[in-house]
Amino acid sequence: MTDPALGDPTPTPKKRRQWPWLVGSALVAGIAIVAGLGKGEPSDNERMVTLCQKVVTDDAVAPSTVTFVSSQVVADADGGWTVSGELDGQNVFGAMLRSPYACKLTYHEDRGLFSARITG
Hints:
Layout: H1 19-36, H2 44-59, E1 67-75, E2 81-90, E3 96-108, E4 113-118
Antiparallel strand pairs: 1-2, 2-3, 3-4
């Protein structure tokens, strides 16, 4: 119970400033939008490298040990592409080795897909 002479013991809520929260939220949203601008669909070169690396990894002796060190995409005269580079991975004896890799990619327009085969 409260004594009417002492007044209401419930403190009056302080009025908070909301503008710092609004400015902060807008700033965070702006940064998120700017950071996401360049992250749309992967380029054709990125797709080709990813496909080749998947095919090479799947063919490796110890796929979980494969780390790609470098890669490059070169257009071939026949309209295809060659992805090549170097990778680190275990051989059949368990030793880590750096090895070259290469695969030939062909784009099938009728299906909208790339196919890849290991060439080196």
